[in-house]
Amino acid sequence: MDDIVILPLDVIGWSVQFWIVLGAAGLLLQRVPRLINDVIFPLSALVSLSLAAAGLWALAVAPGVMVLPLGLPDLPFHLRLDPLSGIFLILLGGASFGVSLYSAGYFKSMAGGTLGLLCLQYHLFLVGMTLVLLADDAYMFMVAWEAMALASYFLVTTDHSIPDIRKAGYLYLLIAHVGAIAILLSFGVMQGGNGIAAYTFDAMRSAHLDPFWSSAAFLLALFGFGAKAGVLPMHVWLPEAHPAAPSPVSALMSGVMLKTAIYGILRVTFDLLDTQLWWWGVLALGLGLLTAVFGVMFAAVQGDMKRLLAYSSIENIGLLLVGIGLTIIFHVYGKDALAALALTATLYHSLNHAMFKSLLFIGTGSILHATGERNMGRLGGLIRRMPWAAALMLVGVLAISGLPPLNGFVSEWLLLQAFLLSPGLPNSYINMLVPVAAAVIALAAALAAYVMVKFYGVIFLGQPREHALEHAHDADIWERIGMGWLALACVVLGLAPVFVVGQLDHVSQMLLGAQLGNAAGNWVFLAPVDTERASYSPLYFLLAVLGVMLLASVLVRHLYHGRVRRSDPWDCGFPAQTARMQDTAEGFGQPIRRIFEPFFKIEREVPSPFDTHPRYHGQSDDRLWYILYLPVKHLTEKLSSLAGMLQHGRIHLYLTYTFVTLVVLLVFV
Amino acid sequence: MMAEYDLIFAILFQLAQLLLVVLLAPLLSGWVNQCQAWLQNRSGAGVLQPYRVLRKLFHKDAVIAHNASPLFRVTPYIVFGCMWLAAAIIPIIAVDLPFSQAADVIALVGVFALARVFISLAAMDIGTAFGSLGARREMLVSFLAEPALLMVLFTASMISHSTQLPRIVDTLAHHQFVLYPSLAFAALAFVIVLLAENARIPVDNPGTHLELTMIHEAMILEYSARHLALIEWASSLKLFAYISIGIALFLPHGIAEVGNWAGLPLAILLLLLKLMLAGAGLAVLETVMAKMRIFRAPEFLGTAFLLAVLGLLIHFLLGA
């Protein structure tokens, strides 16, 4: 009897099939929503875990390949599992494990029919994302990509009775498809006119394109994947679609789906195209910086908690694009060790963002359920009503602010190290760009902390701004487990960077032929290039901070006393405190709005001093929407109204058109 | 065997510096205040006044608002721990500090950021008007000051090809005396950052309780007794840490080399001299300047940021 060899790809195949079965079961079980919540979502989470394990396993073994006899005749689906796919599968599995567990609690209040359909779409969405990561031919990739886009569209429009949500969904679908067309064209260019046999990625890898066509393929891919990721100026759908979707779906879209676009850019740039040009890197770097600063600036002035997180996702995508740009630049100039550093920073940040952004998004879901409010101006003081959610989200907030010893800091540290190591590039223009870029990254990171203090402070701290908040309830047990998992992931990714970097090295080896390695030679110290240059040990850092804190508290209590008296707040002796005297979200963001005023389109209605019922209204809008999108919209509307002149709905008119067309064609041909 | 002894000595030395900074920091604050008093023709309370204040505060009962959350109570310890650690990892007497391997300059900026985020959150916890006002202003000041500080440190890192503080200081201290043009810009930027981050005139006024102008004081209004004492001590440590960074980057000469135990007494003497000079300089700066409106502060800090980037750019262009 032959030994049965199980490969990672088999595990993933079973997982995908199991997910499809679970989704279908959800649809069938819609009369017993309790089963969907208590059985299907936890099972789905286990499947996520197996997917992540298979991804981790795939890093160490040779790439697995599989041909599925599905699809069109003579066009089978090709699958391939290599380290790049593996890392993103870990990301997908790790984040969706937490989100699925959370969903088991979150969707309890939903009606059975909607829940069954949502369960199906949720699992199709997961399957779509998995297949995008595994696809090894253009056909399969596009099918999976579209499945992912459509499933997420239906998920975004779950509450389709609300017109604004339908509108948000439409905008999302539109931009997703403009992007998909660009991706398809990019594959077409890489196929290089070699006929239908060249639609596999393998054929594209071996094809050699001249610089013009390579650049065309890269630009189309950057545009197409950028539209999905929310890169400027295709970011407009993100702040609309993310708040519209149910929170676990927002978490998956922001945490995982945006990363599939990053995966796509990496796959096309480093795997499918055989040469890269330096100006691609500069373009990606520039776009990334713009996106990062734009995203964080707009996040600072938002009043809706989910919109704030959506803009923060735009910022993080910008940082990832900066990392990709640096990788391209270093790789082109033959500095592959540095390219590996930049790539590691990019991949690390992808993982981190998947964890903390999913955590924060599902956290907003618990707040939404507890209070029915997305507007931060009507929240406040929830740390006392929702201690679990508050504690777990604090981890996410600290991580996303890039504070040591959590995970956000590690990727930021690696990225800044990549900048610091950059002198010595042969191109002096790039050498001048690098310090400016590092400065902009530092600025964006500092602003991100501002945004997150605002987010956490306004929602959780202070006094409740509405009476209804007194009755807010904490997250339920499933929700706590889901959030706890993601918070744990943030801590572990922060404390064990040496292990993570070791795994990411498999990807660097595959894409760049170089590894980052660890010069320190032990698992405590992370030292990417050499120990003299830079090293960082989050574990010692944490121990030192905790040590001095403990020492201080023990000494203070031992030498003096621990007596505490409770009283009313002091507030400079001001007696009449109300909750309305605290900063609202708008108030906290006001300095940023004032400093960066030219970037916002601000509408203000300020009451006159004599108003008996003063109302203040302020709104900061995106100028790009008015400059880029509205003209296109007006043009489309004008063209379609012109086309409407032809349409009268009378059959003889259409017959006349057909006749005239035929005559004209006959004359020409 | 020799290497092991070196490591043990280095760890002992690290612990000694930990102890030294925490005891010395209030003295530096007292010295700055005393210098200011002299410049204002007052006799002043003496350099030991901060210790007396700390002792008084530690003896009192802590009074906490009814609705204060655990975050509010744990923050003073976190802030104190962070600042203590920050002050202890900057090489000012000798360059072998083993903990510097665990936390480099980027992590140092991270420690400051960690403390700042916690104290801002704690300020918003009670939900008073002044608390959130202070938190907002603190974050406003820091979102420009932090990248400026990072750029200053990067300039020094570029020169020494390392982000590790001992290596940076070693390189800067033991080269023959050259004036780096990039460091000149960085020094200017650093002074502005130091003033802003330590709540000094012209950005903030440490002596104020005038409600509309305060930043740092507004954040800690609700704290009392031991919590307030820890925060005040942490402020002293922060000032000490910033002045130490300044000394380490711009005046590192005379620091003891690795394993040079005989050079320690001289190094300590020199350090005390430098600290006294820096404290007096700070007092003079604060006396000759006036507090600016809060919305001038971003411009002031923007200048620091641009100067720091310019310094880094000059290093990239000239290689010096």
Structure description:
The complex is a heterodimer of chains A (669) and B (320). Chain A is mainly α and 669 residues long. Chain A folds into 2 domains: 8-541, no CATH class; 596-605 and 616-642. Chain A has helices spanning 8-28, 33-60, 83-106, 112-134, 138-156, 163-191, 201-206, 211-229, 238-244, 247-272, 278-300, 305-332, 336-371, 382-385, 387-400, 407-420, 428-460, 477-495, 497-512, 538-559, 585-595, 623-644, 651-668; strands at 64-72, 75-81, 564-567, 600-605, 617-622. In chain A, the strands form 2 sheets. Chain A has a two-stranded antiparallel ribbon. In chain A, α9 (238-244) crosses α10 and α13 (336-371) packs across α19 (497-512). By secondary structure, chain B is mainly α. Chain B has one domain (2-318). Helices cover 70% and strands 1% of the residues of chain B. Chain B has helices spanning 2-39, 49-59, 70-88, 105-125, 129-160, 165-174, 181-197, 216-219, 225-250, 264-288, 297-318; one strand at residues 62-65. In chain B, α7 runs antiparallel to α9. Chain B is globular and about 55 Å long. The mean pLDDT of chain B is 86. At the A-B interface, α15, α16, α17, α20 and β3 of A face β1, α3, α4, α5 and α11 of B. β3 of chain A pairs parallel with β1 of chain B, so a sheet runs across the interface.
